[in-house]
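Q&A FORM
Asked by: J.P.
Topic: structure of Vitellogenin domain-containing protein

PROVIDED:
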Amino acid sequence: MNITAITESASMCTRSRMIQFKENDQPLTMSTTCTDHVRSTGTYGSLSATRYCMSVSDVGGSILTFRGNQTTEADNRETLMREYALERLSGWFCFVQTTFGQVVSVFHSTTEEVEVVNIKKGIASAFQANLRGTTEETEIDPQSKHISHYSYPDSVDEVRKMRRTIDSEDIIEFPMHIPTRDVKLHEEEDIEYKDGRLIKSNGTLHLSIDSSSTSRLEGSDEFSNAFTAHGSFSMELKLCRISARFSRKRRAIQKSVDGSYSVEENLMATFDERKMELEKLETLRRDLKTPQQVLTALQNINSGKNFKALGQVMVLERKYGAMGVSVTDTVLYYLRKIQSEEDMTQRVAIYSLLSSEGSTRAENALMERLLGEAVSELEKQSIILAISLLSTPSPHVIQTLEEMISQSGNESSTLLLAYGAIVANAPSTQKERMVSFMTALLPPVTSESTHSVIHVLHALGNTKSSLAVEHIVQYLWHEDEDVRVTAVTALRFFTARPDTQQHLLDMLHDSSDSMVEAIIHALRDGYEYNREMPLDQELIESLANITINLGNYYLQDELMYFLRAVGTHSSLALVDLIVSSRAEEARLKRDTSTIWDDPSSEYDFICPLSERQADVRNFPSHQSCLWSETVGKDEGDLKVYLKSGVGLFAGGNKCNCDLKALGKAVVRGHLLGWEADAVKILGCVLKHNGIIKVKAYIKFVGLVLLDVDLPLSYTYQLPQYDLTLFSVSYTFIVYIVPVTLSASLQVHVGGQVFAGLEVGESGSIKGTVSFTPFVTATVDASASASIFVAQVGIFLTGTITYNISAWASVAVCRPQNPWFVEIYLGADHGWSPTSITLGAFYQLRTWTFSWGSRRTWSPLTYTWTLPGSGRLPLIEECTDTDGGEPTPPATTCPSATPVSTSSTTPTASWAKYRPTPTPTPEIVIPHGSGAEPAPPTKPPLTKPKPFFPPV
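REPLIED BY: S.T.
REPLY: Here is the structure written out as tokens.
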């Protein structure tokens, strides 16, 4: 903002605003008063502009409810209700208007709620003029993005007249949760400008539900939210619930509403704050008239509504006095009554009420409880947190906390952090002394004591005072990493300073996850504290590159969340860079899914890998099952068993290990079966390319122990690689239709190594080693044609895979006598089932001129098996250890001919221990999506709050 040739003038304005609704053809009006404003002229960038500053601090916040005639249903007269809300506005704010009538910037306090800011922007939008002679203009106001249609009636003298109309189809973006497709809206506004400034505006709005949607929406609450007008005054109209139980006439009234508004003399007028807040106090006191009702609300702190009303009533009573029984007096009486009770839940809730009320009586009550002898340490921490939220702490509070800190040293973190938060609300004359008091608690930078340093640094950050910056910065290069990270966090309210951003850039040489995370969060909190904060381009580019190199998805998500909130061209370009790098990494990732054997080979228990848990914060993760137990019965065709297991959840860049419990119950007969999986409970994170599996099985039949299998194995998944041999795309135009032909060939290479040791029945032992590589080739071809509004195409995909599984095993078995040693070396080879897919699709452009979702016709898929699969036994020999001659494997080797265990011949069945070739994971390549990974859903940015540990 560059203002030159400033001339200031202040004058009383003479203007009024009238809000009018019609209820049963009876107008309901409200007259308003006015407020002062200051006007400055100068330049904004290269444009001549005028800056307006005004105060709207006396606007009330109550919800006004107008009611029609209250009559009975028997009289066949209707009861109608309309509501509109005026959000509370506070403080001075300014905006800049060019000589062309365009409002280019609105300035406001960074501590205000977003609803307040939106209304202030709505006030500024009353000044915006479309003076370029166009008949249609896309406009953005606090409520929506829409197209306004302008017409220009004949003007008189120097007054320029305009008429603006908006209809339902003109709404481009509407942030409220209202399905605008079902809403019929028509708004008209007559505007008069003089000398490029608005002098008068009158508007009407009609809102109704589309008749074709009435039957679908009957009994629905979809329109219970208010619908805001697009004009210069923020007015909310509310559609009622539609119910089929009412008459057709009443339903017609309920599904439509009309409103009108009028603006004169340029500025938005203000309302009588005292009158409106007294009305609000009277409304809130309807359920809190007697002491017993107040006590009931205090005792039912979980009810929410009445307890919240208590706090609002206490604040208004402090301002205007009590209406009848004082709620504050009743709350203080109840606090004294329950002060000796063991359960402190209600007392802690009362502390928060007293903190929001903020009077001297409330402050004294909190200090009395804090200094009481019978108060537990945990409750004292809650009292200290409530004191830290006082809007105007007295000198007595400040002095008492300083004495408590001096007595306890700097080991009491809650005291220090609360004291730091109080500094932010303390009078400016005391801030310098209070910051000096805190910095005196800091040990030397070379001190080995880190615990106390961390507490003081967090407290200095809570002060939001620039006096604390130089003391925080000197700890950025402390030898302890926790201290360095804490110092970065403490600078979160000062990141708008260029020197602070330079310090953060210097700290990036320590590219640990915790340091990068602290820098990102400090910038995010600083931006929320000051939205006008300039950003060092080198700093955010370095952060983006570091998060990509670390491969940490959580840090990438946090950074992208911040960069999207900033919303500049350069920040959004960095978001695209991170998204593209993640897409490339995902393309190279291997398929991580495996199957581990159940004691009954017929029922495989599947443990999928690459699962994500909320508590592991989006780290890549893998899961291995550690233990399984099965209890049940197996008699012929009937199988009944209950299975449970414990697994290890592993993967990513950190280790936050937990166990996962799994379970399955199976009842299956010859003609009837039932199966259910238990809930997965916990998970873990550990970075490792391999997967270690240790399993123990205990099998019961009739609850009698039969045998125990204790296999120990290790599986290593070899890295996988994708190689695109060729990819071609060609586009040509036939008349006006662009046609695109594309084709590609991709090879996917991977493998797996397995080693295991198993103890089988009757003391038999076997060791196994196997190696399984695989190669997959994918051919992809497609053709598509598009015009301006539609795109159609076909695609053809073919996949062919060849596997080779080489493995070896040595087994020692002694089912009876004598001992047998079996050596087996072999290989499996063959083609996996090969498929070819043919499909078609079409897409339509949306009204935002981007392609909509793809509609795909069911593709034709043909799968066949190529010949040539088989097993190549290279060595298969079984030797009698008692000196007998080796026997031919085809006739007497135990692995060649499994025999029933009831036979008297010394045999052992080893066939089941031979490793089965690991199936090649099917490589599925999406066609035509072209979509980038979806950005993470985040809650909206919240205001940075003082740092407090959990109580």
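FOLLOW-UP: Residues 592-705 form one domain.
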